[in-house]
């Protein structure tokens, strides 16, 4: 079975896919290769298990069973369930931001780049519903450390506004960007929590308008509402994740 085009992201593959198993035989696989393989399988297992059972009900045993990894191997990599979820969240959101940044930088103008980054965000979450559920909704259940990690992630979205224009040469307070990012996140959260993940790409015109209006003005931003929503897969690929 071919890899999902977003396969480096947690939840894009089944953790126990036979193609990912470490082959037994006379040639010894280096320990670091075994650990990396187990870590990737556990990332996928965390996402699928937490999305299915909810974070509160998912156990380390459930995650190990889904990954085909022993408990001692799990604890060699993570301190516990909280640590595994935060590591998975950090890994997945790093990769997602990389995709968004690539789309943003590929466009010549800030407005086009902001729209492209937002399109990637919505499409990736729609294509990986288990990842969306875990990273957007269930992260709340993992305690203060996980919520602090999410707060840090939201501040990392500021990078997409560093080159934004000022509408009418008005000063743009830092809180404005926080409000825009928070509004986008709240809308996405509402859809994911309601089980409407597949509908996220259709939000692009409205969210693009909401994102742009403080920076380009209402009249210019309104044209976003007339841009058709692209159909089909995101087309996001990782040629090199190293």
TrEMBL record:
An example molecular function term from Gene Ontology annotations: transcription cis-regulatory region binding
Protein's UniProt keywords contain Magnesium: no
Region ranges (Disordered): 1-30
Entries under PROSITE patterns matching the protein: HTH_TETR_2
InterPro entries reported in the protein's UniProt record: Homeodomain-like_sf (IPR009057), HTH-type_TetR-like_transc_reg (IPR050109), HTH_TetR (IPR001647)
Recorded superkingdom: Bacteria
Record's keyword annotation contains Transferase: no
Domain HTH tetR-type: 36-96
Keywords: DNA-binding, Transcription, Transcription regulation
DNA-binding region: 59-78
Signal peptide, first to last residue: none
Protein name as annotated: TetR/AcrR family transcriptional regulator
Organism of derivation: Dactylosporangium aurantiacum
